[in-house]
Amino acid sequence: MRNDDFIAGCAELAMLLEVSATPKPGNVDRTHDFQDVTYEHFLASAVGISPVFKKAASTRFQIGDLIFDAVNASTQWQKAGNCHFGATVLLIPLCVAAGKSSKLSQLKQKVVGVVKNTTSADAVQFYKSFHCVDVRVQERHFLDVKDPKSLQTILDQDLTLYKIMQLSSPNDTLAREWVEGFPRTFHGSQLMQQYFQSGLSVNDSIVQLFLKLLGEFPDTLIAKKWGMEVAREVSTTARGVMRDGDVQDFDRDLVQRKINPGTTADLVIASLFVTLLGGLRY
Q1: Which of 61, 14, 4 is nearest to 42 (CA)?
Q2: What is the predicted pLDDT for the residue at 1?
Q3: 32 by DSSP, 3-state: which?
Q4: Cβ neighbours of residue 144 under 8 Å, at least 6 residues apart?
Q5: What pTM did the predictor assign?
Q6: I want to staple 8 with a disulfide (CB 3.0 to 4.6 A). Which of 54, 196, 248, 265 is the partner?
Q7: Calpha distance 55→148 (Å, rounded)
Q8: How far apart are CA 143 and CA 154, in angstroms?
Q9: pLDDT digits (tens, 9 = 90+) for 188-238
Q10: In a 10 Å sphere around its CB, with 0-12 CB exposed, 13-18 middle and 19+ buried, how is residue 207 labelled?
Q11: Residue 276 burial (C-beta neighbours within 10 Å; 0-12, 13-18, 19+)
């Protein structure tokens, strides 16, 4: 079994590296803040959640409880609210899976088993975590995270957290990660290794990874806030920037328009976690 401290350290460092990378178009990084959330808020959130990652790696706790605890821990260390909700949804099952095997090659298989074995109690705790922070949602099924009656519906129909993710997956990239076996996360990890091995610095590798994932997958948070047409436009621009564009101009444009690809940041964090777990050193 992997060392719990090491797994938690990889998760915390993944969060710290992601928010520190610059220029990361449209998102908070070490060179610019938002009006209501700053670079330091993200640092505090990462440190606050780390003990929960260690609990997850021990594999003795339920996924729903761990997500709820992680969201609470984040808010106890900073006042900005939602800094790492999406990243937590990805990292908690990955940490649990890492705690079950000493071989990185088995991580994908293990995490699929972890999410498929969730329960309706996990789903209830997951829904309760939405009340701890302000998370933008756009559910298009019969369950409403803001309606207390949904909790009873979950229990009455014995809807597991995995089933909830299946219901949400058509409109949510992070839910699709759960349902499809974390393909974007592991794809991102492979890309990160390639960028770093090509001679790029860790910072520039992360920026390249961010642009690549943003170009490949329209950002769910942008789609929820601004619509899918804008999300696709941003993805098209990201692909152009990777070919011959100016990432600084792209960053300034998104910041000015207040468009932040937050879901892409979550995917980068999860990808970094897998890469660090695999032994990336810099």
Answers
A1: 14
A2: 42
A3: strand
A4: 150
A5: 0.94
A6: 54
A7: 28
A8: 8
A9: 999 999 999 999 999 999 999 999 999 999 999 999 999 999 999 999 999
A10: buried
A11: buried
Name the 3-class secondary structure at 201: coil
DSSP summary character for residue 9: H
Give the SS3 label for residue 163. Answer: helix
Tokens of 64: 């729903």
Q: Provide the token pair at 5.
A: 């401290």
- Locate all alpha helices (DSSP H) within the chain, ordered by sequence: 4-20, 39-57, 63-77, 85-100, 107-116, 120-129, 149-156, 161-168, 173-180, 183-197, 202-216, 220-226, 228-244, 247-257, 262-277
CA–CA distance, 152 with 177 (Å, rounded to integer): 26
Are 254 and 25 in contact by the 8 Å Cβ rule? The answer is yes
In this structure, which amino acid lies at residue 77? Answer: W
For 88-136, write each residue's pLDDT tens digit.
999 999 999 999 987 888 999 999 999 999 999 999 999 888 876 555 5
- Tell me the C-alpha distance between 135 and 117, whole Å: 25
Residues 145, 119, 67, CA angle at the centre, nearest 5°? 55
Give the pair of three-digit tokens for residue 3. 């060392």
∠ CA 222-263-68, rounded to 5°: 120
What is the Cα–Cα distance from 224 to 144, expressed in whole angstroms? 15
Query: In sequence order, what DSSP letters do the residues of 12-29 get, joined into one string?
Result: HHHHHHHHH-S--TTS-B
